[in-house]
């Protein structure tokens, strides 16, 4: 196992995946909170023409030029989206869709142009579409590390401003904050995250790395501080686990496995997150239905007692069953356990009878009072 982890390529891939998970997890939180989940998809696709332009300018596959080109075109796509949404009647999703289509089409055109030139250095350039983690070098990690450090530093310095703009941009503008500048800064930061992940997971899958960790973390926390930390940890864990699984399984692509790991985290969060998960929602609905049945049976016993002008009137269980159309034994047992009803004998009848306790009378009166207020 130690020999496996000491492999140079595996170390590079795992470290690169961890850096990608951290930066995409942190910055993806702001995209999710601003309801711009499509932003990651737009910026990742818009990075393709930048990759091609970086290659054309450098004349070779140099990671520095390629990432710089990707950042520039990603930022331009984001600015185009902001211009379209602020100066027209287009909604954000329409602006993002236009920017995505235009820049990705331009990227495909440039990619086919490069392939037609016969430049021998173009080999592997199309790997930026789906990623090629095994090609990451230690020098690439330094570039990724610097970009990650810069992005996290900016988030730390402008934490209060980014937080306010994400939750209430109108209030931020009323306080005098430069909302447009902050939104542009956040968008460019997300473009940085996209740039970091291009070589790891590629243009097509990078959108998932921006959104998935943040979407998973959102299910576990109601505070931005906790959400950002959880998102970074989920992103890092997804990146490392996907890289290790890829190394253990020959022929398995690293990028898709990282995305699948992040998607699995989202699925688990949607199912089991306390208070928000689907499982808890199912339990909550079942509990509400059970409580509703209990309230209905309790008020039925109360009305029967009121009709007979006897607070201790023994109601026959068969009559209560007939009224509700279902067997009420489990409900009555639960009410008995709460001290709201109690079984009684009613000679000469031998069938089960139930009567309200004083606590049951008070509970039924409270339910009927609240119901009357809601109806009025």
From TrEMBL:
Pfam families: ABC-3. It is a multi-pass membrane protein. The keyword Ion transport does not apply. CDD domains: TM_ABC_iron-siderophores_like (cd06550). GO terms for cellular component: ATP-binding cassette (ABC) transporter complex. It is found in: Cell membrane. PANTHER family: ABC-TRANSPORTER METAL-BINDING PROTEIN, METAL TRANSPORT SYSTEM MEMBRANE PROTEIN CT_069-RELATED. Belongs to the ABC-3 integral membrane protein family. This is Metal ABC transporter permease. It comes from Oricola cellulosilytica.
